[in-house]
Design brief:
Low-confidence stretches of chain A: 1-6
Radius of gyration of chain B: 23 Å
Oligomer: heterodimer
CATH superfamily of the largest domain in chain A: Cytochrome c oxidase, subunit III, four-helix bundle
Number of strands of chain A: 2
CATH topology of the largest domain in chain A: Four Helix Bundle (Hemerythrin (Met), subunit A)
Distance between the termini of chain A: 48 Å
Shape of chain B: globular
Number of helices of chain B: 16
Shape of chain A: globular
Strand content of chain B: under 5%
Largest sheet of chain B: none
Order of helices and strands of chain A: HHHEEHHHH
Order of helices and strands of chain B: HHHHHHHHHHHHHHHH
Chain lengths: 293, 525
């Protein structure tokens, strides 16, 4: 332990947590009403999201000014770093639930369903599948004539492999930016970090285009049986995390423009970069298990 | 041991007072108090629901509530007790004790600590409000099994979102605990010098971070199956309702240890103090805790033996479950060995600790019986299971928390609690607990199913006994509340040590512990 523990920064009472709770509650309440045809639902959701945004601005703003004001020593920084790593671990486990669902259905549930003639006689199983009552799969990347009876999947060697390349490159560029920050090469830092954000945004654009393609031409939707469900939930939650990661990096980029961060003290940069590597790694898992195999 | 640079003056310049103090506080002791009060409140709410269940089961036939409401009560009782009473209760202990035990000035992330708590009242507002919606509250059991939960009304959505909020709260709280333990220890407080309560919480926090997201994932699948047309749990679309159980119990079994490991920690603090001996086999205790945590990830399907798994699966989960008896046996052995030839006295905390060792072991043995796959086909979904998990959860987790509360109340409040009333509470509680739950073993073995508001006539006598016990058990908790309030109000001044030469940094600071404890870290020799 560092001997500087006596000066560990302890924040004063803060209203941001309770504001966050109110926002979270309102958001969920609105969502629940929206799902159950309550007219106030969407408005409550918007209000809740705004309150959460306010909380994020206020809370992170307070942390940034405390950090730039020199209130944090290395010991506090270490607390932040450890907590970020464990937060990422919790995200890994969230994705693990959906990967688990994918593996379980593919390896066990679908073959069992196909093997027994008791429930759905004649169901052949296989992967991709939308189940015995769903549309039948046809070759990948083929436009379907009737989405009620057919669906197609997105093959790996078109945009997905390009997206893999984009994200892997962005992991390299953020690392270059990190080295630049450590050497205090600010121009280089801003260029490579900016490029990382751009790569993330391009990835999201392609992903959105793929979704549009899937919905309008391939007959592949969230409701396309267990294939559609696992596909869109996995890639959708990944896309959400790319969005969050890109926003984090963009905020860090803006802070770099303002001259924040020092070569030896830049927790927010590191945390965002770690998070970015995490979404990158998840994508590689998705590419292998959702698209290729 | 350390000398505490004690009594930092309790002035908070410009800090809010009154209700705002509690809402905005970043102090680990304030937040610990909030958690404990919340836990006690939910304990009473969940207890009232249990009394509704026992009132209906007092006699065969349907008398008091309709079956649908009965189902809501079994569901909500479990949710309130697990997520409202036991988990927040232990976080309350963690907040109060971990910084004091490791010589830290506070939790590592105080604002986040505040948020972890203040999500909970909102989550439970959502959950409890669902009882008043059209169609009533969730009634599919706390496990929310698909496809039954897919057919429920809007209350299921409220439950899902409440679970999401509790998950956020638990994950943030657990991260805080881990960071505090790894990064805030006083100089010289090496990992293997930490009190066992800190160790058990470290491992509990790891389990929380590992499995709460999995619960969030599975209830999210439930939500999309309900509203967005996915088919995770619908065979017509290629899904499988059994998959819900697999993912749920992948969360659910580590969750069971989340509910018990901090209890092991608490009694590992109490027993040495009143045996006047250091804990026997400290390192073995740490390793046993880690072993239990590891095993918790590979035993989940023992909750689903009757669901139709391949034989290899049944065997694997049977043997892995039985392995848990080894580290748990180590723990029980070490507690008993700590008492062996100790200079024992039987103050209220010690009574609770001994009762926990004894009664939890009964729950452990009935768990072993349930682990035997062929036998479980007989026990599954009967009152034997209900008896089993109340022996581990009530006479394990809850009674350990009561013991812990008596043990540390003098440190928290600066006053001794009323020993006579404390002992009276212990005996009433423990006797009524056994009257309530011991007969349920017999009911289950005889085949009475759980979660059913009516039963065959031959089960009447044991149910009458159980219901009378439940009423007594509920009433005896009023005495607990009275003792706690009385102790907060006043009483004999407590010394710094409170007990006779107890080990641990928390006993080196004055009672009540000053608002900021270790602003300069103590030195651990």
């Amino acid at each position: 332990m560092s001997g500087a523990q006596g000066s560990y920064y302890l924040p004063n009472p803060s209203a941001w947590p309770i504001i966050g709770s109110i926002g979270l509650f309102t958001l969920f309440l609105g969502f629940m009403l929206f799902l159950n045809e309550g007219t106030a639902g969407p408005w409550l959701m918007i209000f809740g999201a705004c309150v959460i945004a306010l909380m994020l601005f206020g809370w992170f703003g307070a942390v940034i000014s405390e950090s730039e004001g020199g209130l944090y020593n290395d010991h506090v920084g270490m607390s932040f770093r450890i907590s970020m790593l464990w937060f990422i671990f919790s995200e890994v486990m969230f994705f693990a639930a959906f990967f688990g669902a994918l593996f379980y259905t593919r390896a066990l549930a679908v073959p069992w369903l196909a093997d027994t003639d008791l429930l759905w006689p004649g169901y052949a199983g296989g992967w991709p599948t939308a189940g015995p009552k769903g549309p039948m799969p046809i070759d990948a990347d083929t436009a379907v004539s009737d989405p009620a009876t057919q669906f197609s999947t997105i093959g790996p060697w078109g945009i997905p492999v390009l997206n893999t390349f984009l994200l892997l490159t962005s992991s390299i560029t953020v690392t270059i930016a990190h080295h630049a920050l450590k050497m205090n090469a600010r121009g280089k830092l801003i260029f490579w970090l900016g490029l990382t954000v751009v790569l993330g945004v391009v990835f999201m654009y392609y992903q959105a285009a793929e979704y549009h393609h899937a919905y309008t031409e391939l007959g592949l939707t969230l409701g396309t049986g267990v294939y559609g469900g696992t596909f869109f939930m996995l890639t959708g939650f990944h896309g959400l995390h790319v969005t969050i990661g890109a926003i984090m990096l963009a905020v860090v980029w803006l802070r770099c423009l303002r001259g924040h961060f020092k070569p030896d003290n830049h927790f927010a940069f590191e945390a965002s970069a770690w998070y970015w590597h995490f979404v990158d790694t998840v994508w590689v898992g998705l590419f292998v298990f959702v698209y290729v195999f | 041991m350390a000398t505490a640079e004690a009594a930092h003056h309790d002035e908070h310049h410009g800090h809010p007072t009154g209700i705002l103090r509690w809402i905005t506080t970043t102090n680990h002791k304030d937040i610990g108090t909030l958690y404990l009060c919340f836990s006690l409140t939910m304990f009473m709410v969940g207890g009232l629901m249990a009394l509704v269940i026992r009132a209906e089961l007092f006699q065969p036939g349907l008398q008091i509530v309709d079956p649908h409401f009965f189902n809501q009560m079994t569901t909500m009782h479990a949710l309130a007790m697990i997520f409202g009473a036991v988990m927040p209760g232990f976080v309350g202990f963690a907040n109060w004790m971990i910084p004091m035990m490791i010589g830290a000035p506070d939790m590592a992330l105080p604002r986040l600590n505040n948020w972890s708590f203040w999500i909970l009242p909102f989550a439970f507002t959502m959950l409890l409000a669902s009882l008043f919606t059209v169609g009533g509250g969730p009634a599919a059991g706390w496990t929310l099994y698909a496809p039954l939960s897919i057919q429920g009304g809007m209350s299921v959505d409220m439950t899902i979102f409440a679970v999401h909020m509790m998950g956020v709260s638990s994950i943030l709280g657990a991260i805080n605990v881990i960071v505090t333990i790894f990064n805030m220890r006083a100089p010289g407080m090496t990992l293997l010098k930490m009190p066992l309560f800190v160790w058990t919480w470290l491992i509990t926090a790891f389990l929380l971070i590992a499995v709460m997201p999995v619960l969030a994932g599975v209830v999210t699948m439930l939500l999309t199956d309900r509203h967005f047309g996915t088919a995770f749990f619908n065979p017509a679309g290629g899904g499988d309702p059994v998959m819900f159980q697999h993912i749920f119990w992948f969360f659910g079994h580590p969750e069971v240890y989340i509910l018990i490991l901090p209890a092991f920690g608490i009694i590992s603090e109490i027993i040495p103090t009143f045996s006047r001996k250091p804990l026997f086999g400290y390192t073995a205790m740490v390793l046993a805790t880690a072993g239990i945590a590891f095993l918790s990830f590979i035993v989940w399907a023992h909750h689903m033996f009757t669901v139709g798994m391949p034989l290899a699966g049944e065997l694997f989960f049977m043997y892995s479950t039985m392995l848990i008896a080894v580290p748990t046996g180590v723990k029980v052995f070490n507690w008993v060995s700590t008492m062996w030839r100790g200079s024992l006295t039987f103050e209220t905390p010690m009574l609770f600790a001994i009762a926990v060792v004894f009664l939890f072991t009964i729950g452990g043995f009935s768990g072993l019986m349930l682990a035997i796959t062929p036998a479980d086909f007989q026990y599954h979904d009967t009152y034997f299971v209900v008896a089993h998990f109340h022996y581990v959860l009530f006479s394990g987790s809850v009674m350990a928390m009561m013991g812990g509360a008596y043990y540390w109340l003098p440190k928290w409040t600066g006053h001794m609690y009323d020993e006579k009333l404390g002992k009276a509470h212990f005996w009433l509680n423990t006797i009524f607990f056994n009257i309530t739950f011991f007969p349920q073993h017999f009911l289950g073995l005889a085949g009475m199913p759980r979660r059913i508001p009516d039963y065959a006539l031959q089960f009447t006598e044991f149910n009458v006994i159980s219901s009378i016990g439940a009423l007594g058990l509920g009433l005896s908790q009023l005495l607990f509340v009275y003792v706690v309030f009385k102790c907060v109000q006043g009483g004999k001044k407590a010394s710094s040590e409170v007990w006779e030469q107890p080990l641990g940094l928390e006993w080196t600071v004055p009672s009540p512990a000053p608002y900021h404890t270790f602003e300069t870290p103590p030195r651990i020799s």
